[in-house]
Amino acid sequence: MHINESAENYLETILMLSKTHPVVRSVDIAEELGFKKSSVSVAMKNLREKEHITVTKEGFIYLTDTGRAIAEMIFERHELITNWLTSLGVDEKIASEDACRVEHVLSPESFEAIKKFLNK
Asked: Helix or strand or coil: residue 68?
């Protein structure tokens, strides 16, 4: 399953917001990412068409099973890479920013190898 970095970021953001908000709306995503609501609306339309999210008539956004699987995979990568970099002495903010870039390009094989190595 191939999905672009932007879509992965949106799905991860929806997942993170769903943990702290009773419901997730486009305005919440726009605020969290610092994007215009119109840009978020276009992205939500694309994610809905790819069946990664559903949107209720009230505008509440929910991850589908496939959307949740992608979001959780990206979130796991982000957390593991951030924690690894901070354990190496990298500032937490920088580690998180770097993890955000790396999480999208790392192959599943490399990620699993890193995960296995760190869990020794």
From this structure: helix
Partners of 63 in the beta sheet? 53
Q: Greater confidence, 2 or 114?
A: 114
14 and 60 inside one domain? yes
CATH number at residue 85: 1.10.60.10
pLDDT in tens, 36-62: 999 999 999 999 999 999 999 999 999
**Residue (of 104, 94, 99) closest to 82 by Cα position:** 99
Tally the domains of the chain. 2
Amino acid (1-letter code) at residue 104:
H
| Residue 86: pLDDT band with limits 50, 70, 90 | very high
CA contacts within 13 A on the Cβ side of 87: 7
Tell which residue, 28, 8, 16, has the closest CA to residue 101.
8
Taking a C-beta distance cutoff of 8 angstroms, is the pair 54, 66 a contact?
A: no
The residue segments making up the domain with residue 114 are 70-118
Q: Check pLDDT > 60 for residue 1.
A: no
